[in-house]
Amino acid sequence: MADKVKVLIIDDSALVRKLLSDILAGDPGIDVVGVAPDAFIAVRKIKQLKPDVLTLDIEMPKMDGLTFLEKLMKAHPMPVVMVSSLTSRGAEATIRALSLGAVDFIAKPRANLSKAMEEMAEDLVTKIKVAASAHVSMQRMSVLDLTPKLGMDSVIKKRPFDHNISNPATVVAIGASTGGTVAIDHILRQLPPDFPPIVIVQHMPPVFTESFAKRTNTNSAMEVREAKDFDRLTQGQALVAPGGRHMILNMDSNGPYVNVKDGPPVNRHRPSVDVLFRSVANSLGSHAIGVILTGMGDDGARGLKEMRDAGSFTIAQNEESCVVFGMPRVAIAMGGAQKVLPLSEIAPFMVQMARQRQEH
């Protein structure tokens, strides 16, 4: 049997420490080795207990979670899952934490904390195990939950691409999960302001996607913002699917636009990368580029294969540069990726491809 994942919980709230401890201790693959109410006690316990993963509260006395995380990643980098409040302020701090090196986060609402934490138990356990395997071998991935998942058909039906499409403009579709906020930011920083339109699904809850888009926008020459229903796709703009809603690309006589809609989670996600990728395959076929980045699970793998089958050019991030080589690994195995590239080479390759397409 694989070793248990050793977890240290850092939170100033005694109630949250107990709730997290009870949830994690209930899983046979996890061992809660200790708790700490602040960063200074946490430092002693990290040295003493040698945990595999930390859960870290953002708002703490003496030293806040972001300051502690920044110091930790310089002195002793290790997997961290942030515990964030489900607010705009909490979302902004979480996006900052991910950019500093946190692997993932869970968002706790302010009301009905005990009930809410119970409901997110499965998600928390999965994220802890994924964090433990981040940048390491995939040995622990086998213990992840594999409950039945709804497929794309529950939201969007597959249909053949119309090769007589009149608008040949290129659109890039990007999908990511764990580690994706940093990867997407890295790519968008390198793109020129007149780059073709981009549509993005990053697995995140509501509020957090808006903060992610705003932060990424400050680093990019392109305009990056959260998508709204019926937004037109324009050159130099990247649209991020809002948390809790699916994003679907459609075409009319004026060109491509997006619909933002409700619907059941697909592969346990809403927004789902598969839903976006299928819609791009349906509507744009060979006039699109698909990119699947770091993330746990397999959301986007089938959609990327459908994009390739419809004539799109498809790219997957390579294992060495992924935080978690889940989504790209499945996409590659399914034959969905024409090109497998390290993160550092994806943006330059996209620029080169877009230029070639404009010339033809």
Account of the protein in words:
This protein is α/β, with parallel strands linked by helices and 360 residues long. It has two domains: 5-135, Rossmann fold (3-Layer(aba) Sandwich), CATH 3.40.50.2300; 159-359, Rossmann fold, CATH 3.40.50.180. It has twelve helices and 14 strands. It has helices at residues 14-25, 39-49, 65-75, 88-100, 113-119, 121-133, 180-189, 208-219, 273-283, 301-309, 327-333, 343-359, and strands at 5-10, 30-36, 53-57, 80-85, 104-108, 171-176, 198-202, 223-226, 237-240, 246-252, 255-261, 288-292, 313-317, 339-341. It starts with a strand and ends with a helix.
Helix content: 25-40%
Computed structural class: alpha/beta
Order of H and E elements:
EHEHEHEHEHHEHEHEEEEHEHEHEH
Poorly predicted sequence stretches spanning 5 or more consecutive residues = 136-148
Corresponding CATH architecture of the largest domain = 3-Layer(aba) Sandwich
CATH superfamily of the largest domain: Methylesterase CheB, C-terminal domain
Number of strands: 14
Largest sheet: 7 strands, parallel
Question: What is the CATH class designation of the largest domain?
Answer: Alpha Beta
Strand content: 15-25%
